[in-house]
Design a protein that fits this description.
- It comes from Saccharobesus litoralis.
- Catalyzes the ATP-dependent phosphorylation of L-homoserine to L-homoserine phosphate.
- One of its GO terms (cellular component) is cytoplasm.
- The chain has 317 residues and is α+β, with helices and mostly antiparallel strands.
- It is built from ten helices and 13 strands.
- It folds into two domains: 179 residues, Ribosomal Protein S5, domain 2 (2-Layer Sandwich); 127 residues, Alpha-Beta Plaits.
- α1 crosses α2 and α2 packs antiparallel against α3.
- The termini are close together.
């Protein structure tokens, strides 16, 4: 039996929720915007093959790949429960660019662990698996955070709780909003994007941040679209990170000229996103970004909706 897990792209922060908000994305044209991991069979030794548009950006040594770390972590988690599992034959289809701000590493991690869990008949519950995903994501970014792995795995708009009992909760959102994303083709490392931020913020900035998140959450539950949209502004990261993104101000200006409700940086960048109420405006923004924000042949732009399903498992018996 072969098991495949597809884990969608995600946008971390969503401008107003630094490290504590994340949103899963699904292109409206049916394109795959996420990584896939397939487990074909057990094996004497771990085996990994690579496919996908961005496979050539990954290390050729299987044991240098994050999905190998996922296998080792999964194996250790089961060993702690007194269960032993054999090695596997795995394929990673890498469809997301590294350092894009679309949750690329999270997508690989989530797909790998979800596939492993399904292949071995679900020995780990969702919360345990999600915490393992966050731990492995932390190996790459330098600290454990869930704003990409949680929406990637669970779908929807996730607010990080990180209590003893629960990692995140699903917030209501507006399914008729369009989320246009554009990856420029450049690469911005999470570490570099964090290093450019201040180590401390003023009292005013922290109050603004808290007020925006509280009002946004209220507006979602109240179904108040204009109020929710007016809160999608980044007071913590964007003022500093936009200097790393060539053409950011021009892209924002065009999106706003087309009636975008909000515009911001997806995760650490360089991907940007625009929120629109109409398909026509979303497509106009997508086409302009494709022609003007993309820097090379690796760049791309999509009109998306919220992916409420999260990671999808298929089995070939």
């Amino acid at each position: 039996m072969a098991v495949t897990a597809y884990a969608p792209a995600s946008t971390g922060n969503v401008s107003l929720g630094f490290d504590i908000l994340g949103l899963a994305l699904k292109p409206t044209n049916g394109a795959l915007l996420g990584d896939r991991v397939t487990i074909f069979a057990t094996a004497d030794e771990f085996e990994l093959s690579l496919a996908g548009r961005f496979a050539n950006k990954l290390p050729s040594d299987a044991k240098q790949n994050i999905v190998y770390d996922c296998f080792v972590g999964f194996q250790a988690e089961l060993a702690a429960q007194g269960k032993a599992i054999p090695a596997v034959n795995m394929q990673l289809e890498k469809n997301l660019p590294i350092g894009s701000g679309l949750g690329s590493s999270a997508s690989s991690i989530v797909a790998a662990l979800a596939a492993l869990n399904a292949f071995f008949e679900y020995p780990l519950d969702k919360e345990t698996l999600l915490r393992l995903m966050g731990k492995l994501e932390g190996q790459i970014s330098g600290s454990i955070h869930y704003d990409n792995v949680a929406p990637c795995y669970l779908g929807g708009l996730q607010l990080m709780v990180e209590s003893e009992d629960k990692v995140s909760i699903t917030l209501p959102c507006f399914d008729d909003w369009y989320w246009t994303i554009c990856y420029s083709g450049a690469s911005v490392s999470t570490a570099a994007a964090r290093d450019i931020l201040p180590k401390e913020y003023s009292t005013k900035t922290t109050i603004d941040f808290g007020r925006q998140l509280a009002v946004f959450t209220h507006a979602l539950y109240a179904g108040d679209k204009p109020l929710a949209a007016s809160m999608i502004k980044d007071v913590l990261a964007e003022p500093y990170r936009k200097s790393l993104l060539a053409g950011f101000d021009d892209a924002r200006a065009y999106a706003e000229s087309q009636g975008a409700l909000a515009f911001g940086i997806s995760g650490s960048g360089p991907t940007v996103f625009a929120v629109s109420e109409s398909a026509e405006a979303a497509e106009n923004i997508r086409a302009w970004l494709q022609d003007n924000y993309c820097q090379n042949e690796f760049g791309f732009s999509h009109v998306c909706k919220i992916d409420n399903d999260g990671t999808a498992i298929t089995e070939d018996k």
